[in-house]
Amino acid sequence: MNNKQVLSVLLTAIMVLTIATSMAAATDDGGCSMDPTQEVQFTNDPLKSRIDEILVEDRSVFLFFYADWCPYCHQETPIIEQLEEEHAGDVTFIRINVTERPDHAAEFGVSGLPTMVMISGKEGEGYVREELSGFAKKAE
């Protein structure tokens, strides 16, 4: 399966499972919010180098941004684990606790939790990516 097919399958699965889960646990805000006023100091952390190395191997990268205090993140964890098992040969899954690594959350523009980012390649200096953040709100 090529990267575009894997990306499509994963994003579809995540959206369907997220919507299904959110129907049972929807709230007014649609997910956990992060404090936008928190100061972030960027470091020379090797995350982007690791992502680049994985992309060179013709694999996609799935980033799961979560926090221990976020109930929605806990609901998504079994889904992420299932996807990780099903796509272990095509996709590298990286979990990032934003409480421990707010710099990574800032680098990827994470403002709500959980946030899932699928990176399928590079385009110049930027990544080719798709993002899904928080839960969908319950239909009225």
Which key features would you list for this structure?
single chain; 140 residues; alpha+beta; Glutaredoxin; 4-stranded mixed sheet; 6 strands; globular
What does this structure look like?
With 140 residues, this protein is of the alpha+beta class. It is built from four helices and six strands, in the order αβαβαβαβββ. The strands form two sheets. The protein has a four-stranded mixed β-sheet with strand order 3-2-5-6, sandwiched between helices. Strands 1-4 form a two-stranded antiparallel ribbon. The chain has one domain (3-133): Glutaredoxin (3-Layer(aba) Sandwich). The longest helix is centred in the N-terminal third of the chain and has 23 residues, at 3-25. Helix 1 packs antiparallel against helix 3.
